[in-house]
Amino acid sequence: MILKGSQRGSAKQLGLHLLKTEENEHVELHEIRGFVAEDVIGALREAEATAKGTKCSQYLFSVSLNPPETENVRVETFETALSAIEEKNGLTGQPRIVIFHEKEGRRHCHAVWSRIDAETMTAKPMSFYKNKLREVSRQLYLENGWQMPRGLIDPKDRDPRNFSLDEWQQARRMGRHAGDLKEMIQEAWATSDSGRTFAHALEERGLYLAKGDRRGHVAVTFEGEVISIARATGIKAKDLKSRVGDPADLRSVEDTRKRIGEDILPRIKSHMDEARTSAAADKELLEERRLAMARSHAHERMKLDLGQKARAEQEARNRAERFRKGFGGLWDRLSGQRAKLEKQNEIEALWALRRDQEQRQAMIAVQLQERHALQFEIRAMRSRHAQALRDLHFDAANYRLMKRGQEPRAMPSFEHAKPRTPPVQPQPAPRKPDVQKDINAERLDDLRARSSTPSRPQDRTEERLRRLRQNKRTSEDRGPEPER
Questions:
Q1: Verdict on whether the full-model pTM lies above 0.85
Q2: How far apart are CA 421 and CA 400, in angstroms?
Q3: Which residues does 437 contact at the CB level (< 8 Å), separation at least 6?
Q4: Given CA atoms 78, 84, 89, 91 in this order, what sign does their dihedral have?
Q5: Do residues 8 and 62 lie in contact, with contact meaning Cβ atoms separated by under 8 Å?
Q6: Angle 73-31-299 from CA coordinates, rounded to 5°
Q7: How far apart are the C-alpha atoms of 280 and 41, rounded to whole Å?
């Protein structure tokens, strides 16, 4: 599973984020260890109060554990990963909080440790924690037989569409997906070979090349948001400048926004509004289904928890009734019968706990499978409407080319390669008969004929043995006579 960690403070803000239900369909508090408080906010505030006695400002260590989306990962696997993280980073025994989130059909875990050692009032050092988390992540992929991402094997091969929290929040303000924005910029870069073609490729995707205040080359979206091209593509500023040119020659962000508002927006605004209205209607229908499914799943889990709790209480009473009272109970203690009953009750209680865990895990797996199917429909809808918006931006770019008197470009899907005529192969000149080759062939045939003819008849092994037994060795058997 992918592990992402960070050192931080702001206990209350982190607690509110972990308990947020607007974006997470299910939030489950799994464990609070080492704190007096029994709620998340209180426990994090307790860690903050402990850190007041030190000079440490980043007194929390937060890690998110993201397993493969298609895998059904058990709680025990998460606990094994948490133990490995603690051991690698020297956090064994430190107070911690573990919370499970479910979002978009994906179940992941958040863990927060307090770095402050209450006995020594010092902060646990977190040197090279990213490298340590990467080692633990690789080990988890190998132990569980999951397909390891290429970016985890070699950081240079990581998925270029991965985005940070800032990029995701920026995309949310525009109503788009952060991975789609980065993918569009990378496609424009891959299909261009100069600054002019790169700018046109961006405009076909609703992005406009401009000069940033601090980032050099930037892309301005149709909504006016600014995206760094170097960060989106992973290209160094030097290589970007060699292909696109000096950013000082481009329009500023303010001029680009003015151009979008004055030149492009009036022409395609009506079509954009229509496309967004259609997308909003489809999104609303799927959102209603998503919320209804989340409520149904939450009700099923609550019903299961209540049923398991009632059954556990009844089973505990039944086990307690096995112990006799009075003189009978005293006799059971003396005879060892009570010790046997205690051992039996302990085994049955452990078995009941495992049974309830298996039952809950099976329900979560079925619900995640249902949520995966719905998420597939959501992604298909998002991709369909994103393609419609991209086509509108392509038309706007072509209209501007026609306004300048240039020939418009065809859609990429309609661009067909010209049929290539296969080159005419030159006919080889007639060769003269090779006399030496014929002579060699005749010699080879002669040698084969000679080797197939035996030089002299060979006696069979049985005949030679028979003559030896009769002591009738011929001159041929004895070999040549010695000279006298």
A1: no
A2: 36
A3: none
A4: positive
A5: yes
A6: 70
A7: 36
126 Cβ contact partners less than 8 Å away, ≥ 6 residues apart: 7, 61, 89, 115
Query: Side chain identity at 39, as an amino acid letter?
Result: D
What single letter denotes the amino acid at residue 170? Q
The Cα 314–Cα 121 span in angstroms is: 46
Contact 477, 465 (CB under 8 A): no
Q: Is 103 helix (H, G, I), strand (E, B) or coil?
A: strand
Say how far apart CA 344 and CA 321 lie, in whole Å: 13
pLDDT tens digits, one per residue of 349-363: 999 998 998 888 899
Question: 164 near 213, Cβ under 8 Å?
Answer: no
What are the extents of the domains in the chain?
2-157, 165-251, 276-410
User: In what helix (H) or strand (E) does residue 129 lie, and over which residues does it extend?
Assistant: helix 129-144
Task: Assign domain 2-157 one CATH number from 3.60.15.10, 1.10.579.10, 3.30.2420.10, 3.30.930.30.
Answer: 3.30.930.30
Q: Tally the C-alpha atoms within 13 A of residue 366's C-alpha that lie toward its C-beta.
A: 10
Taking only the tens place, the pLDDT of each residue in 223-275 is: 667 888 888 888 887 888 888 888 788 888 888 877 776 666 566 667 777 77
**Main-chain phi, psi angles of 479, to 5 degrees:** 90, -175
**DSSP single-letter state for residue 214:** S
Cβ pair 185, 201 in contact under 8 A? no
Token pair, residue 384, equals 């369909």
Distance CA 391, CA 398 (A): 11
